Amino acid sequence: MAPPAAPTAPHHRTPLFLPRRAAATARAARAASLAVRAQPNTAAASTSAPEPPEKFKPPPGFKVPEPKRFEIKSGQQSSVLGALLAIPLRLGTGVFVLGYSPSLVSPSEIPSDQYALEFGAWKVKEESKIGQCKRPEKPIEIYEFEGCPFCRKVREMVSVLDLDVLFYPCPRKGPTFRPKVLEMGGKKQFPYMVDPNTGVAMYESDDIIKYLADTYGDGSVPIMLSLGLLTAITAGLATLGRIGKGNSYTASRIPPQPIEIWAFEGSPFCRLVRETLVELELPHLLHSCARGSLKRQEVFKKKGVFQAPYIEDPNTGVQMFESAEIIDYLKATYVLYQSS
Positions of the region Disordered (predicted)? Predict the structure, then answer.
C-alpha cells in the first residue's frame, strides 16, 4: 500500500500525491525507465531471445559545428524573430534568475577561466539569490508541450529558480507521455508536475508555480506570473510568433536516455530547439541557465565558451552548440520516417 499523503500547504489546491521514488544511483539508471514506448503484452511464455536495444548514432557525415556567437544561420531569421516576440510580451520573464543583479567591473576582477559577459572594455559581474535557495536532489519531472501558454508560465518559473527539470514532451497525438499523464493523474491536462524529492504531483500552472516558489525559491512569484488572466493572455500571445510549432507529434524513435540541454525560457534560440524536442517527443533533462545562473560557468569550464542552447546526447556521444545545427541533428537522428 502506498504511504499516506504528506500534508498540503494551505495556499495550494489539493494536489495528487504519489509515493516517493527510490533514489537513483546514476543518470543512466534513472533514464532506463523514462523514455521507452509502451511495449506489447509479453506475459505469454516465449522461447525467442529478447531483441537487443536499438542503437543510436550520429547521422552519416555528421560533424560538430563550431560555436558562433550572435550568428543567425541563413534561413533562420524569421524563426528567430518569431520566437523573439515573447520577450517584450512577457517583459523578460525567464531571462533572469531570482534576484539577478549585474554590475560592470574591470576585466581584471574576473579571472579568465570564469564565465562573464563582456560589455565593451568591461565585464559584467552577475549575482543572484539562487545560492540562498534550497536545491532539489533529483530533477523535477514535468509533462508539457511547447505551444501551451500555461506550460510556458511554469517553464518561466523554472528559469527564474534555475532548476534542473526532466521534461516529458506531450505533443498532440503523442503516443507515449500524454497517455501516461492520464494514467498517473486521471486527466489529460498540462502541465503536470511530479517532484520525486517530496512525493508531490499536481496539475494547474499557478499551483505548480507557487509550489516551486515556496519549495525551491524565497516564496515570491515574479509579477508577470502573478497577474491571473493577464498572465495567461500574454503567455498565449507569446506563442503567436511561432504558432503551431512545438504542438504536434512527428513520428520518432525514443532513445533510452534523455538528451541533456542547457537552455532557458527567454532565449529564442533555445525555444526553436525545444520545439523540435517536443514534436519528436524526446525526453530531455533541462539544465536551466538564465542570466545569473552558475551553470553557465559549468559549460564554460567544459567547453571554453558558453552559448545556449548546448546539448549533450548520451545516446550518441554528441555534444554541440548552434540551434539550427542541433535541430538538423535531432531530426536526422530521431525522426522515424525520413523524407527522401
Answer: 29-67
